[in-house]
Amino acid sequence: MNKPLRRLVAAFATASLAVLGLSACAPSYPEATPITNDMVGVQMNMWSFASIEAECEFLGQAGYDWALVSPPQESIPGGEWWSHYQPVSYKIDSSLGTEAQFKSMVKTCKSHDVQIMVDVVLNHMTGQMNGKGFAGTEFSKYEFAGLYATDDFNQCPTGVSQIEDWSNVEEIQKCELLGLADLNTSKSNVRDKLVAYLRDLRNMGVAGFRVDAAKHIPANELKQMVDQLDGNTTFISEVIGEMPPQSEYYAFGHVFSFDWITQMRNIFSSNGLLGGSADQNYFDMLSPSDKTVTLVSNHDTERNGGAVTYMFPKAFNLASVFTLAVPYGKPMMYSSYAFNDNDQGPFADFTGYQPKETCVANYGPDHGAYEPGEWVCQHRWPAITGMIAFHKAVGDSKFTNIWQEGDAYGFGRGKLGYVAFNTGDTDVAATIKTSMPAGTYTDRISGGDVVVAADGSMQVALASWTAVAIDVKSKK
Ligand code: ARE
Ligand code: CA
After folding, report:
1. Residue 243 CA: which ligand 1 atom is closest?
2. Are residues 425 and 388 located together in one domain of the fold?
3. Given Cys at both, which of 206, 226, 437, 449 links 201, Cβ 3.0 to 4.6 Å?
4. Is the pTM of this model over 0.85?
5. 27 pLDDT band (50/70/90 cuts)?
């Protein structure tokens, strides 16, 4: 559904409830639209609230429907980005901004039709023995005044506190991930505290959540928390690997596809490996399309070699194009900052807060080298924003007109779109048979013209490591 239509339907639903004299059951929350396969999200990794707020006009115009915010709650202080994954309270206050800035971001983004999703850390608190949080909360590893006491944390059954056997689900879920104090979510008082945090965020207008380290929380316990939020709330669980199975988590929400990240890295890491990838049988073997968020990279895989990243800009660009081009999953793009030290977070000034982020000049895959700390702004790369429109234009239409010539490969999406890639070193000029109506189209990648002849054929000139994409909505 397109955005204005979605708004209209939501307004109509509210109006008809009023006519019937019904009100939504308590507790009622601000409007949220569950994510669909047509929608496109973006992880604004480590962007401050104020900067996301300022960027939301662009995001909305580019067609992004939702943006994922890094963990916003109070955490241990520190310049490392990963400090944010060590909560010490659920106050919204960190180097990313204050609660007032957070609320303002949610409101402004909503006015641009961009929903805010929040990365929530429910599995654990900190790994530090004691200290004072960013907002002044004093804590020790297993004592958080007003929240948790020692017996609210799991006792690892092996006697060693950390997870050692990564094939043992009980250990994965009841022992400490990376030495982080592991919350005992089998206790209702613990779940109540976590649900209160989720409800607070939802009441601020947040539409849904990325559940950090979800595989380390038993699915039935997470589900009990999910069930306490309204049904429009989106949940996307981070469940990596074989055990526990992802299916336990998509039974009540979504999962991120780490298989997709790997597949993108495999396909786009060398020349000419794209051939055969428009294969519906392959897609059918993956987690169900309507339960799956597809992504090229996230903040972890960007650092551990598991994904194509901005450091291989042409590959990252085309992997993002491909993710938006195929009939599979609910795509989430990725945007962040350049780094040469895996731990280094974005710069914060003397106030402790991050100053306003600005994109590098001439953002895009041809930018060249970055200084550490510069904002790469992959979400603004023209091929990526162009393909958001393609993604929405082609809907769920099937693969057609698969074409291959050397290291170049293309496929249609029924009569609604066609995309071709060249992942070879040499330029390719070719005539490709499509099912598109004759006419002149604007290439979603370069902005140039592409002509489709009466017989559906189109001539393309594909430079090395570029793509061309047309769709019915780009017809002139
Ligand atoms: C930091 C230090 C540690 C220290 C710890 C406690 O780096 O040395 O022990 O603090 O003091 C992030 C960082 C961590 C950081 C942590 C807390 O990545 O380095 O630890 O924040 O500050 C598994 C989990 C998965 C998890 C990854 C990293 O299953 O959930 O490991 N990902 C999420 C986030 C991370 C975050 C956390 C969880 C913690 O996305 O950014 O950590 O909140 C196989 C397994 C996977 C495993 C994966 C690891 O594939 O199947 O289960 O993922 O390997 O690559
Ligand atoms: Ca756990």
Report:
1. 51
2. no
3. 206
4. yes
5. confident
